[in-house]
Design a protein that fits this description.
The structure is a homodimer of 393-residue chains.
Chain A: H1 9-18, E1 40-44, H2 45-62, E2 65-66, H3 76-84, E3 90-92, H4 95-101, E4 109-111, H5 118-128, E5 133-137, H6 140-149, E6 155-161, H7 173-185, E7 189-196, H8 199-202, H9 207-230, E8 237-240, H10 246-252, E9 257-258, H11 268-271, E10 287-298, E11 301-304, E12 320-322, E13 329-332, E14 338-341, E15 354-357, H12 362-366, E16 371-376, E17 379-385
Parallel strand pairs in A: 1-16, 2-9, 3-4, 4-5, 5-6, 6-7, 7-8, 8-9
Antiparallel strand pairs in A: 1-10, 10-11, 10-15, 11-14, 12-15, 13-14, 16-17
Helix pairs in contact in A: 7-9
């Protein structure tokens, strides 16, 4: 049955995706943003450059290296901007991201999840030939499989330490020292250091509560690093943290580099986090979803063209940033649409009007889109592919 | 700053995506499914062909046409199989889907949401030149804009009728007749009929409750169709419904065609719906997400490589279909990982083992992936692109 389907069905669609999408003819058009086919992922270049500059200055001032996490943006363009601002390399959550981003502009890449399975390990070995790669491990079984898969190639591995989440990582000092020995026993593996990342901690809104959480969890990191040193395995690199904890991690002085990610965009979640103890967050929201009113037949609400396929609905619905009256809220209306609910007496946006939404959680939202529409003000400057979109394997 | 980024960053990644992904070398390999880089979207071809055949037989027996909704699968291959089984054409939720799927194998395409905005209307006009297209409308303003944008081309439009959700559609008979007149006034538009779709109704689990809901809502559809006939605008086509209501819609006999979508996959949501009054659902689950255990350091749980970027977390977490002991449940652990929580005393899956998950809601889940891994049993038969992935604009 399959063979009866002409091969000519596919190329058209794939050619389109390999291009720059339906809005490519609007690049360079003044006020092109207002003409876009929607929903469209919008990247404010002024805010992006500002954010990259602010974090780079923070790293320099604090004497801590930056290895920004590309799981957030999945973009070769943004990664290159981060490297130009001084980042020592990039993090990738998965092997597929690293394959897509590998290249001179990305610099050294660290894969921050264990890579497991025969097909994935073979790909990892091949990738070693074309980029400066390192990967985390959390089990002796994985270390042995890695050693065998590399077929003579050399690779730096870091031990992932569980910050108390029971997701990935070794539990503590004993397991870490044992694993360092297993690494040492593999001729082609080099022990590079420790990784320590607590995702939920990043989003604790209150600065003092977040700081206490980091301090509590970091006690185990300090103990593990000390045990490794005593056993003759000093961790050259201690990498981890994120946008939510970068100031705290730098102050504690245990980590040697920060895996900051979301600071480039500042999504709705981070916008409510007090990132610094005494001063306001210096970061700006650079990422929005532009939607359009496609139905306006009822009092009190209008329907826009962005639903669950255009935003991630696992958390709160996105905030409305512009295009609707003060007090209006967005609600999901299925996969393809959303409702803008208007406050009593407010004037409704009209059919065709653009309503801009925030991103509740930037990482999985970006992962829905093939392109960033890069703007300065309302001018469409460029369209950048989301280079590693969907590459979760 | 942008111009300093070499253009050579992009082609590698895009070439990879335009291919068949990291598992392409496993096509044809016996038991290739077990070797896949994961997470991977798996399509059981036996179950898919069974489902397409069952629904085609239902349509023939009931004397009702099928226009399956491609928003579910976004696949040229699956659309072609539906057409070969007798479908009169396909539905697309958005213009971008229709652009990607247009071609002789898809047949006539109906866009089931209003198309609004200057750029989108220009694209719609161009698409008319290369496929048999129709689109729904729900406002006179949109009808006027369409008439102007077509620049002499002819297009069939259907009036979308609100089933009571206030998402899209005209509210009732008066507005429908007015809109039919506005369509008649546009020389290049032809009034093709009515569309009527209530999404939430599809998922009411109890058959009798769902049936009552359909009957209540359909009363307005009958009244609107009658008013249009009396005013001289007989609706040649009345299109709508879905997998959840197809048996009820066919029995009521008001619709002339069904927009069934999810029946091809049967996701977790539909698996709990009683689709028929007295007999079990004849459809089988054809779509799963294969994940792999990547960390197994703690008693009572293992970590797999599929999180919120690999499944849609807006509803319940996915069911575990195989690869873990009876009673094990999946929980999201962030964007990149999930936990398989084991029942007391159960033997844990081992590092590298594959755990297969259901899809909580198939449409937005498919929209995360570039490829279907098409299997018979555990043999990887083929890899099909998700042709219209992400094309929500």
């Amino acid at each position: 049955m399959i063979n009866t389907i002409p091969g000519t069905l596919q190329p058209g669609a794939l050619d389109r995706r390999a291009g720059l999408g339906p809005n490519r003819d609007l690049i360079g058009r003044p006020n092109g943003r207002k003409l876009l086919s929607t929903p469209a992922l919008i990247l404010d270049l002024d805010a992006l450059e500002h954010n990259i500059g602010v974090m780079a200055a923070f790293g320099r001032k604090s004497g801590i290296a930056l290895r920004p996490h590309a799981k957030t943006h999945k973009s070769a363009h943004i990664g290159a901007l981060q490297r130009q601002a001084g980042a020592v390399g990039l993090c990738c959550a998965k092997l597929g991201e690293a394959e897509a981003l590998a290249g001179e502009d990305a610099g050294p890449l660290l894969i921050t999840s264990p890579v497991v399975g025969p097909s994935a390990l073979a790909r990892l070995a091949t990738l070693c030939d074309r980029t400066d790669l390192s990967v985390v491990v959390d089990s002796e079984e994985n270390v042995l499989a890695l050693g065998a898969a590399l077929q003579g190639r050399r690779l730096t591995v870091l031990i992932d330490l569980d910050p108390g989440l029971h997701r990935t990582g070794v539990p503590g000092a004993g397991a870490a020292v044992e694993l360092a020995r297993a690494i040492q026993d593999q001729e082609n593996l080099r022990f590079g250091g420790l990784q320590f990342f607590s995702g939920p901690t990043q989003h604790i809104e209150d600065y003092r509560a977040r700081s206490r959480d980091v301090e509590d969890r970091t006690a185990n990191l300090v103990a593990v690093a000390e045990a490794l040193r005593s056993a003759g395995f000093p961790p050259a690199v201690i990498t981890g943290g994120g946008t939510g904890t970068h100031e705290i991690d730098a102050r504690l002085g245990v980590m040697t580099e920060l895996q900051v990610g979301s600071y480039v965009f500042m999504d709705d979640q981070y916008s409510t986090c007090a990132l610094y103890p005494a001063t306001a967050s210096p970061f700006r929201t650079s990422l929005t979803i532009d939607t359009r009113v496609v139905s306006a037949n009822w009092p009190g609400l209008v329907t826009v063209d962005a639903g669950l396929k255009a935003s991630t609905g696992s958390l709160l619905p996105p905030r409305i940033l512009s295009g609707a009256p003060e007090g209006a809220i967005y609600e999901y209306r299925g996969d393809e649409h959303g409702a803008v609910i208007l406050p009593e007496g407010a004037r409704a946006p009209r059919l065709g009007d653009v309503v801009s939404l925030g991103t509740p959680h930037c990482d999985p939202t970006v992962n829905l889109y093939d392109f960033y529409h890069v703007v300065r003000g309302d001018d469409l400057i460029d369209i950048w592919p989301v280079t590693a979109r969907g590459l979760s394997s």
